[in-house]
Amino acid sequence: MSLISDGSTDTASSEAEILYLRHCHRGILRTDFVGIKNVPKADAAGITTAISNILTDNLGDTWKTKIVGMATDGAAVMLGKTNGVVARLMREVQRPFIQTIHCSAHRLELAYKDATKSLDIFNKVDNMLLAIYLFYKNSPLNRANLKASFNTLAQKPLIPSRVGGTRWLPHIKRALENLLIGYEPIMQHLTQIQNPNDAAHRKDSANK
Fold first, then answer.
1. Would you say residue 205 has pLDDT above 80?
2. Domain match, 129 and 95 both
3. Which residues form the domain of 9?
4. How many CA atoms lie within 13 A of 3 on its CB side?
5. Residue 8 domain-assigned?
6. Residue 133 within a domain
7. Do 79 and 123 fall within a single domain?
8. Nearest CA among 72, 51, 98 for reference residue 167
9. What's the gap between Cα 110 and its chain centre?
10. Does the pTM exceed 0.70?
11. DSSP assignment, residue 30?
């Protein structure tokens, strides 16, 4: 069997490790969710302990004789040659032949960023998307007024989503799509903020 592991952060900003199991059951390849466990400190020792405990709690000690591979992101804490999580697991179960796999989605995202990091337009768009996201995330009033702009234009409210901070390209794609779909309401709201005496803004405020 092979493990698929990644870090996660809950709404309280607590670090956790999530674990999936890739194995063959009666000739059929399967990927099953094994568990998730909080990690007091997201270093190699803490993550290794969390993964080991998840497996032992769910599978007993049999996993130690069956693990042959592990897929993770490319962070040093996971793939460090001497003290990374995979290296520690190898020593714990005494199986030095475990194959490590750098997540293909993560590698694709890294290749994308490497190819675009020198493009000025990419950096401007990336910063703009992040600024718009934070502008509405950090202000309940701005979010409420943006929803009002959507309603005024008879559109379903769509709050700008986050770009960056993750390793998955679909997050960038979703942030761009949300901006394009909500472009008119967003521009209407930003224009009203810039011109608070605008007649449409006064009318909308009076209705509230």
1. no
2. no
3. 2-102
4. 30
5. yes
6. yes
7. no
8. 72
9. 14
10. no
11. E
